[in-house]
Design brief:
This protein is an alpha/beta fold. The protein is built from 12 helices and 12 strands. The protein has helices at about 30-35, 50-65, 80-90, 105-110, 125-130, 155-165, 180-185, 195-200, 210-215, 240-245, 270-275, 300-314, and strands spanning about 15-20, 40-45, 70-75, 95-100, 115-120, 135-140, 145, 170, 190-195, 220-225, 230-235, 285. Strands 1-9-8-6-5-4-3-2 form an 8-stranded parallel β-sheet. Strands 7, 10, 11 and 12 form a 4-stranded antiparallel β-sheet that branches. The radius of gyration is 18 Å and the shape is globular. Bound molecules: flavin mononucleotide (FMN).
Length: about 325
């Protein structure tokens, strides 16, 4: 089978594969560069990063790749505007925006002539995004790792969005192998965004013991938690997720107001950072629902090569 061609504004990756942005510091410059070098779109997760850190990340990725590099930013973070503007000043190729909806970012990206790709979970928000100037959409379903904008399946939402808009639609949530990609394309998607498959890669910035958890995790280990952002989140069950789900008091002692609005049931940045560093008892391990299909850590380039090769055989 032939892969579809994904065009986002003037950007045309060799393969219609976007590596999902994964905060905090799971998808940093080395992963984004490796994915971009292999013909996909590499994404640096900017949420939780400082401004100078983000500049260094973008510059590192640029020095190590001629491919397409973007950032992912959650609307919920306090430094949202600063982060977007820094990425635009650094000449980022595209911005993917999730966890909330901002009208301002459309204006900023249009002025900078940088494609904006909002993450949506309804046809209504998809249409509004197109009217406001989105270049493409990521349509994320309940199967996805991290914060969820819906509890509906990607399989249900993608055809609805595809019928509602004429810009490219990228399916996200539960896409691990070539068969999953085929299913997404059959539903009308023009591309796929994959998170946890790339979190479990050599270049991912997850600590080695976190990568071991990814490889061992089974479907029944996957849980939903109530994130301080005000959205449900999909994660791997561990001591910390059990504490969140049993109303154990995890309210933060030191708060740096990193979110515009925070429920303060626990500190999401600390919890994600702990997981990334391998401090797993105090870490929240975000993961997609289909992690069970991942049995080994592979270089990102190898993951893409295998996806393309397997897809061609279907
Ligand atoms: C560890 C982890 C962190 C994530 N962080 C973010 C994030 O910062 N912003 C965002 O929009 N999506 C985030 N996501 C969602 C991914 O970008 C991607 O859309 C999703 O994981 C797709 O589902 P999959 O993991 O089943 O492939 C995260 C996912 C994971 C697994």
């Amino acid at each position: 089978m032939k892969l579809p061609v994904l065009e986002i504004g003037a950007l045309k990756p060799k393969y219609p594969i976007i590596q999902g942005g994964m905060a905090v510091r799971i998808s940093t410059a080395p992963l984004a560069a490796a994915v971009a070098n292999a013909g996909g779109i590499g994404i640096i997760a900017a949420s939780g990063m400082g401004i100078d850190e983000l500049k260094r990340q973008i510059r590192w990725a640029r020095e190590n790749s001629d491919g397409i590099i973007g950032i992912n930013i959650m609307f919920a973070v306090s430094k949202f505007a600063q982060i977007v503007n820094t990425a635009l000043e650094e000449g980022i190729d595209l911005i993917i925006q999730g966890a909330g909806f901002s009208r301002d970012i459309f204006k900023w990206c249009t002025e900078a002539k940088v494609p904006l790709v909002p993450i949506v979970s309804t046809a209504k928000l998809a249409k509004l995004s197109e009217v406001l100037g989105a270049s493409a959409l990521v349509v994320e379903g309940k199967e996805a790792g991290g914060h969820l904008g819906t509890l509906e399946s990607m399989r249900h939402i993608v055809p609805l969005v595809k019928n509602a808009v004429s810009i490219p639609v990228v399916a996200a949530g539960g896409i691990i192998d070539a068969l999953d990609m085929k299913e997404a394309f059959d539903l009308g998607a023009d591309g796929v965004q994959m998170g946890i498959r790339f979190a479990a890669s050599t270049e991912s910035n997850a600590a080695p013991n976190l990568k071991e958890v990814y490889v061992r995790a089974k479907r029944e280990d996957i849980v939903l938690i109530d994130s301080p952002v005000g959205l449900p989140g999909r994660a791997i069950r561990n001591e910390f997720s059990e504490k969140i789900n049993t109303d154990y008091d995890l309210s933060p002692e030191n708060c740096v107001s990193c979110l515009k609005k925070c429920k303060q049931n626990f500190c999401i940045m600390d919890a994600l950072e702990n997981a990334q560093k391998g401090n797993l008892e105090k870490g929240l391990i975000f993961s997609g629902e289909y992690i069970e299909k991942i049995n080994e850590i592979l270089p990102a380039g190898e993951i893409i090569r295998k996806l393309v090769e397997d897809f061609k055989k279907l």
